Amino acid sequence: MGLAAALLFLLLAAPAAFAEQYTVGDSSGWTSTGDYQSWVQGKTFTVGDTLLFTYGGSHTVEEVSKSDYDNCNTGNAIKSYSDGNTVITLSNPGAMYFICPTIGHCAGGMKLAINVVAASGNSPSTPST
């Protein structure tokens, strides 16, 4: 019984052990001069990974809908962050959208769209017959 419990624990903990933390904008951070469309290229964001937004006092981060992302609408944030060192855990597969609501920043390109994929091994298996 002890071995089975240990194996179960390892299987459940394994995806978290392989989670990545992505610093948005790399060493530049979340700035009005970042090129986030280029930054996202080649990255695979997986459930359990985290995004780290580092930014100064003139910026914030808002998670928004696709429509608000496309139109840089700032009044309907799903979540808003302003601590300058924001860690967001990617909890569900699907598209996520982030903008800086400071006037002119989103329209100037300070916005990020990512697609989060399910962690491998987390999909339910089909029972054998």
TrEMBL record:
A molecular function annotated in GO for this UniProt entry is: metal ion binding
List the Gene3D superfamilies hit by this protein, alphabetically.
Cupredoxins - blue copper proteins
**Keywords tagged on the record:** Copper, Glycoprotein, Metal-binding, Signal
Does the record carry DNA repair as a key word?
no
User: InterPro entries given for it?
Assistant: Cupredoxin, Phytocyanin-like, Phytocyanin_dom
Keyword set includes Signal: yes
Query: Where do the Phytocyanin domain residues begin and end?
Result: 20-118
Q: Name one GO cellular component term.
A: plasma membrane
Endpoints of the signal sequence: 1-19
Task: Spell out the PANTHER family in the cross-references.
Answer: BLUE COPPER PROTEIN (PTHR33021), UCLACYANIN-2 (PTHR33021:SF350)
- Protein name (record): Phytocyanin domain-containing protein
* Species of provenance: Gossypium trilobum
